[in-house]
């Protein structure tokens, strides 16, 4: 009995220690005391529960889940459902956590809170929204603000990923988290300017909130603002301000935030800006997208976009095998998605395997008819690149849902015209017009006016036929247009012109509907038109001006300033007492007192006369004379004497007199002359 009493006292002491440590937040010491209790009684339910809680508080979720699974007989789902689901949630076993919550016999508030988180991670946003609305309606505690923040996050996710127009929740955006989520919802709607204003407000609220804590440093503030700045940069990128976006992205990366999801998204966005340029930077950034835990931080569409960009980067860096491997993996994950097969086709085109690329696209179009339109457009583009315009037209005409679209009709007509296949172009017009006729007949009853698109197609068809000399075929189109608008004189004139070749009598009958010359004459005031502001020529009226007009003209003349004539410049040696030379305007050679140049000045007249001819200096360059005369030392500055006639350098290649020449330069000049003077 004494031993039992001592054991009970020891257990009571241990429980006191557990309670005290729990209140102080020292769960490591509490765990030691709980383990001592379990040594005394290994199946103590309360002790096992406390052990699981201590392990969770210390972040040992795997060990906590192991304790729960080991003692399933004692720790039933009713007792420890929340702890088990929470461990599974933190270990990213989301589906298992959902099953654990749904299997619980009683749905406590804690389980409902966790249920909302699980649904958000599973991207079941409609169910998640309903769960949080129920929590906010039926709960009233200090966590209300957090629930509203989570609710706004769900709405933002719906707007971003499901393109659902968010409803106004009536939440007062008093915190930066609520402002941030509201901005994300606006981005999903494409309201970028409004979203930027919300983010700026969120930044301001964040700074105010953190400034109240004296322990928070400026680095902590910047780290908290990183996600807001990242969203700002994304808006800049969407607006085409790529340089500003890139600068802000790099600033965030330099901060080295701990959120691997944020880093992965920023790195991916930088890669999209780089595209096929700056691939070395992209290869560095792609490492951030491979960080551990990224897959649990991002949505499925975000992860998919990152994988697509990895495949494209592999293609741009000529890693063909890696590109094929990534695109094949993506196609197996999303068989109906277009991008994987388009990337594979692009890689084949880079390898000059265009036929294989077209075949790959054709197989995909046959297997997935719902996505065939976009694939066939790509196939047509490849055919055009190969020069097979007619085959491209055949592919485009096989897209039934686009045959009647004005853009498709225009493209086909242009391509057929380029190939000079006018009959096929007219057939395209005819099929499109018939489609609109059938569509209008199915939608309305009776003789209703045709739609603007229908009439524009008819007019374009008529103009095309007239342009290519098919006036007989254009008559029915023109008659239809005139029937819709009998006052259209232009259409009537075209119709008469077409009938003049087929049925002249009909043309005469129709010409009676043309308006008379009196009704068509334009009543124009010629004088008013000439005097108008835009007239380029105004005729001057004959006759004298009236008194008023004369005064007006005089008044205008007073306003105009007279141009001052500039005085001519006089020579510097001008002497007003001396009479100027009357022949000063004549060239020097033509003046009466010109006596020619003074003799005695020896100047080479190089360049005068025919090209290469010389006057006074020819004797010095004559090799026949220098050979018989005794050698003399060269004049200072005159250069070395030449030794052969073939080495004579033409006058325009000679060095000017007075220039010093070294022996080295003389040798180079000789070598140059040896190759042939002229």
TrEMBL record:
<comment type="function">
    <text>Component of the signal recognition particle (SRP) complex, a ribonucleoprotein complex that mediates the cotranslational targeting of secretory and membrane proteins to the endoplasmic reticulum (ER). The SRP complex interacts with the signal sequence in nascent secretory and membrane proteins and directs them to the membrane of the ER. The SRP complex targets the ribosome-nascent chain complex to the SRP receptor (SR), which is anchored in the ER, where SR compaction and GTPase rearrangement drive cotranslational protein translocation into the ER.</text>
</comment>
<feature type="domain" description="Signal recognition particle SRP72 subunit RNA-binding">
    <location>
        <begin position="540"/>
        <end position="596"/>
    </location>
</feature>
<dbReference type="GO" id="GO:0006614">
    <property type="term" value="P:SRP-dependent cotranslational protein targeting to membrane"/>
</dbReference>
<keyword id="KW-0597">Phosphoprotein</keyword>
<dbReference type="GO" id="GO:0005829">
    <property type="term" value="C:cytosol"/>
</dbReference>
<feature type="compositionally biased region" description="Basic and acidic residues">
    <location>
        <begin position="572"/>
        <end position="593"/>
    </location>
</feature>
<feature type="repeat" description="TPR">
    <location>
        <begin position="226"/>
        <end position="259"/>
    </location>
</feature>
<dbReference type="InterPro" id="IPR011990">
    <property type="entry name" value="TPR-like_helical_dom_sf"/>
</dbReference>
<keyword id="KW-0963">Cytoplasm</keyword>
<dbReference type="Pfam" id="PF08492">
    <property type="entry name" value="SRP72"/>
</dbReference>
<dbReference type="GO" id="GO:0043022">
    <property type="term" value="F:ribosome binding"/>
</dbReference>
<dbReference type="Pfam" id="PF17004">
    <property type="entry name" value="SRP_TPR_like"/>
</dbReference>
<dbReference type="InterPro" id="IPR031545">
    <property type="entry name" value="SRP72_TPR-like"/>
</dbReference>
<dbReference type="Pfam" id="PF13181">
    <property type="entry name" value="TPR_8"/>
</dbReference>
<keyword id="KW-0677">Repeat</keyword>
<keyword id="KW-0007">Acetylation</keyword>
<dbReference type="GO" id="GO:0005783">
    <property type="term" value="C:endoplasmic reticulum"/>
</dbReference>
<feature type="compositionally biased region" description="Basic residues">
    <location>
        <begin position="560"/>
        <end position="570"/>
    </location>
</feature>
<protein>
    <recommendedName>
        <fullName>Signal recognition particle subunit SRP72</fullName>
    </recommendedName>
</protein>
<dbReference type="InterPro" id="IPR026270">
    <property type="entry name" value="SRP72"/>
</dbReference>
<dbReference type="InterPro" id="IPR013699">
    <property type="entry name" value="Signal_recog_part_SRP72_RNA-bd"/>
</dbReference>
<feature type="coiled-coil region">
    <location>
        <begin position="94"/>
        <end position="149"/>
    </location>
</feature>
<keyword id="KW-0175">Coiled coil</keyword>
<feature type="region of interest" description="Disordered">
    <location>
        <begin position="539"/>
        <end position="678"/>
    </location>
</feature>
<dbReference type="InterPro" id="IPR019734">
    <property type="entry name" value="TPR_rpt"/>
</dbReference>
<keyword id="KW-0802">TPR repeat</keyword>
<keyword id="KW-0687">Ribonucleoprotein</keyword>
<feature type="compositionally biased region" description="Basic residues">
    <location>
        <begin position="662"/>
        <end position="678"/>
    </location>
</feature>
<keyword id="KW-1017">Isopeptide bond</keyword>
<dbReference type="GO" id="GO:0008312">
    <property type="term" value="F:7S RNA binding"/>
</dbReference>
<keyword id="KW-0832">Ubl conjugation</keyword>
<dbReference type="GO" id="GO:0005786">
    <property type="term" value="C:signal recognition particle, endoplasmic reticulum targeting"/>
</dbReference>
<keyword id="KW-0733">Signal recognition particle</keyword>
<feature type="compositionally biased region" description="Low complexity">
    <location>
        <begin position="607"/>
        <end position="646"/>
    </location>
</feature>
<comment type="similarity">
    <text>Belongs to the SRP72 family.</text>
</comment>
<keyword id="KW-0256">Endoplasmic reticulum</keyword>
């Amino acid at each position: 009995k004494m031993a039992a009493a001592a054991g009970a006292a020891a257990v009571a002491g241990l429980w006191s220690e557990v309670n005290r440590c729990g209140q102080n937040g020292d769960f490591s010491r509490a765990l030691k005391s709980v383990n001592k209790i379990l040594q005394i009684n290994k199946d103590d339910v309360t002790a096992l529960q406390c052990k699981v809680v201590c392990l969770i508080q210390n972040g040992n979720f795997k060990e906590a889940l192991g304790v729960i699974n080991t003692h399933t007989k004692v720790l039933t789902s009713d007792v420890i459902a929340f702890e088990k689901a929470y461990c599974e949630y933190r270990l990213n076993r989301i589906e298992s956590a959902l099953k654990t919550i749904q299997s619980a016999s009683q749905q406590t508030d804690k389980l409902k809170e966790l249920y909302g988180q699980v649904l958000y991670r599973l991207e079941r946003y409609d169910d998640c929204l309903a769960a949080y609305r129920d929590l906010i309606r039926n709960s009233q505690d200090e966590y209300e603000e957090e629930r509203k923040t989570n609710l706004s996050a769900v709405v933002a996710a719906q707007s971003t990923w499901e393109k659902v127009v968010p409803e106004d929740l009536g939440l007062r955006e008093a915190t930066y988290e609520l402002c941030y989520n509201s901005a994300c919802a606006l981005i999903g709607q494409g309201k970028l300017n409004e979203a930027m204003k919300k983010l700026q407000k969120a930044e301001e609220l964040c700074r105010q909130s953190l400034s109240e804590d004296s322990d928070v440093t400026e680095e902590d503030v910047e780290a908290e603002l990183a996600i807001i700045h990242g969203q700002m940069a994304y808006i800049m990128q969407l607006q085409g301000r790529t340089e500003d976006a890139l600068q802000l992205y790099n600033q965030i990366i330099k901060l080295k935030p701990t959120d691997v999801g944020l880093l992965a998204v920023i790195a991916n966005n930088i890669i999209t800006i780089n595209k096929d340029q700056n691939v070395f930077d992209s290869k560095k950034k792609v490492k951030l997208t491979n960080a551990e835990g990224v897959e649990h931080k991002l949505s499925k569409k975000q992860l998919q976009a990152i994988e697509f960009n990895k495949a494209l980067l592999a293609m741009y860096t000529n890693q063909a095998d890696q590109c094929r491997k990534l695109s094949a993996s993506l196609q197996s994950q999303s068989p109906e998605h277009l991008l994987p097969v388009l990337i594979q086709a692009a890689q084949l085109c880079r390898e000059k395997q265009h036929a294989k690329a077209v075949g790959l696209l054709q197989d995909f179009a046959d297997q997935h008819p719902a996505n065939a339109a976009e694939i066939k457009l790509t196939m047509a583009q490849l055919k055009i690149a190969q020069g097979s315009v007619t085959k491209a037209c055949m592919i485009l005409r096989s897209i039934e849902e686009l045959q009647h679209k004005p853009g498709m009709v225009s493209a086909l007509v242009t391509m057929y015209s380029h190939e000079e296949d006018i009959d096929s172009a007219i057939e395209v017009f005819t099929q499109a017009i018939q489609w609109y006729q059938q569509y209008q007949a199915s939608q309305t009853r009776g003789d209703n006016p045709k739609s603007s698109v229908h009439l524009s197609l008819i007019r374009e068809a008529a103009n095309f036929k007239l342009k290519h000399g098919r006036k007989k075929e254009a008559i029915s189109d023109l008659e239809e247009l005139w029937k819709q608008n009998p006052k259209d004189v232009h259409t009537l004139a075209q119709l008469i012109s077409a009938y003049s070749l087929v049925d002249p009598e009909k043309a005469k009958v129709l010409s009676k509907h043309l308006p008379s010359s009196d009704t068509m004459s334009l009543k124009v005031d010629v004088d008013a038109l000439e005097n108008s502001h835009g007239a380029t020529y105004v005729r001057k009226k004959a006759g004298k001006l009236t008194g008023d007009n004369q005064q007006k003209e005089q008044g205008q003349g007073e306003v105009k300033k007279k141009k001052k004539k500039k005085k001519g410049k006089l020579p510097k040696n001008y002497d007003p007492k001396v009479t100027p030379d009357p022949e000063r305007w004549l060239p020097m050679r033509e003046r009466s007192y010109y006596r020619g140049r003074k003799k005695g000045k020896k100047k080479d007249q190089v360049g005068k006369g025919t090209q290469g001819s010389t006057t006074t200096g020819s004797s010095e360059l004559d090799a026949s004379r220098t050979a018989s005369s005794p050698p003399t030392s060269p004049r200072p500055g005159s250069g070395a004497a030449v030794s052969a006639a073939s080495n004579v350098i033409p006058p325009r290649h000679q060095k000017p007199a007075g220039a010093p020449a070294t022996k080295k330069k003389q040798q180079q000049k000789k070598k140059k002359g040896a190759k042939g003077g002229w």
